[in-house]
Amino acid sequence: MFDVEEIRAQFPILQRKINGNPLVYLDNGASAQKPQVVLDTIQRAYGQDYANVHRGLHTLSTISTDNFEAVRGKMARFLGAPSEDHIVFTTGTTEAINLISYAWAAPRMQPGDEIVLSIMEHHANIVPWHFLRERQGVKLIWVDTDADGNLDPQAVLDAITDRTKLIAITHVSNVLGTVVDVKSICTGARDRGVPVMVDGSQAAVHMAVDVSDIGCDFYAVTGHKLYGPSGSGAIFIHPDRMAEMRPFMGGGDMIRDVHRDSITWNDAPMKFEAGTPGIVQTIGMGAAVDWMMDVGMDAIAAHEAGLRDYALDRLTGLNWLNVQGNPRDRAAIFSFTLDGPAHAHDISTVLDKKGIAVRAGQHCAQPLMEHMGLTATCRASFGVYNTLAEVDALVNALELCHDLFA
User: Fold this and answer.
1) Which E.C. number(s) belong to this protein (predicted)?
2) Of the candidates 250, 271, 294, which is a domain's last residue?
3) CATH classification at residue 83
């Protein structure tokens, strides 16, 4: 049975105070806190088992390599991938998307070819495609949301032309919390012969993900949002797409033989993992994924659905608070502004005085902000350890903001 207090007890940082108040951490969309088992795993990996991987036959290298490579299978199970050979380790979603841009997209795109994006994309799923626009004359085709922040899968499919080479789409908006029906997009795109890359950064932490069921060609996640370390991440790559990819970076591990006049690449996925990787970061990510699966993704989703519904009811009950978007299906992510002169940074500062951590700014989603006619919002994003009482604490602090700036 899910017990949020038992969950909270596993996160040491939640015991600390900020400005004399208990920490209410609502910035999970940016980066989640780490349970003790992840911290212990990192400490052991550095303090007792550390050595370089794939490099030696000695005991520590063998232990480190085994622990590192075990994460590939864990991530495959976590994402519903048919084989661990379809998982490439990265430093996070940003590197993962750049990997696809350079290794898969760049070699097969000509001037005038098109990439379809939604207006909700994070900059990490925009800038790598701008590289292709600038360097190779690729066109970026944008699909807007409706007034409530919903993204119609059919609108994405209707944007496909005979020049479309890729759809790059978020699974969950980091600003509006909109849950996108990526399965319908992938199904329709596959019928038209168009690959789909899904940014799963904000989705995999909140819900069970099954890439085989979704039918995507690429699915990227980042470890630090999965209650794991920063500098860790992974991407599922369909084997048909993987066979089409050239190496992203050159160095150790991604080669079989190097001679003066020739080179032979290693097999995938090693082919796309050059040099000494983030060994401990990846092992820590594996511990986080184990922890999430032990808690149960359905239990996590149910708990966060309760938080979402309660927070939506309380926040929309404040008639001077503007919650951005009202999508039919949303994660527990809320962006908001206040009536009056208070800037998002002002709101965040006042909330911080009460120990409440939220995000303020454009959330690396400037095209969406421009689409909504905003320069900045505050964002409260919930996670597995948040409580209904913390929703109340947020509302109480927002009422103080309103009184200060009215």
Assistant:
1) 2.8.1.7
2) 294
3) 3.40.640.10
φ/ψ of 148, rounded to 5, equals -90, -5
Residue 178 CA to residue 199 CA, distance in Å, equals 13
**102 and 207 inside one domain:** yes
**Tens place of pLDDT per residue across the chain (406 aa):** 899 999 999 999 999 999 999 999 999 999 999 999 999 999 999 999 999 999 888 999 999 999 999 999 999 999 999 999 999 999 999 999 999 999 999 999 999 999 999 999 999 999 999 999 999 999 999 999 999 999 999 999 999 999 999 999 999 999 999 999 999 999 999 999 999 999 999 999 999 999 999 999 999 999 999 999 999 999 999 999 999 999 989 999 999 999 999 999 999 999 999 999 999 999 999 999 999 999 999 999 999 999 999 999 999 999 999 999 999 999 999 999 999 889 999 999 999 999 999 999 999 999 999 999 999 999 999 999 999 999 999 999 999 999 998 7
- Please say if 186 is a catalytic residue: no
Are residue 165 and residue 75 in the same domain, yes or no? yes
Q: What does the alpha-carbon distance between residue 110 and residue 379 come to, in Å, rounded to a whole number?
A: 39
User: Helices in 205-361 by DSSP H: which ranges?
Assistant: 211-214, 239-242, 279-295, 297-316, 344-353
Give the CATH number for residue 365: 3.90.1150.10
Asked if residue 83 and residue 19 are part of one domain, the reply reads: no
Which of 186, 216, 364, 378 is catalytic? The answer is 364
Residue 166 backbone phi and psi in degrees, to 5 = -165, 145
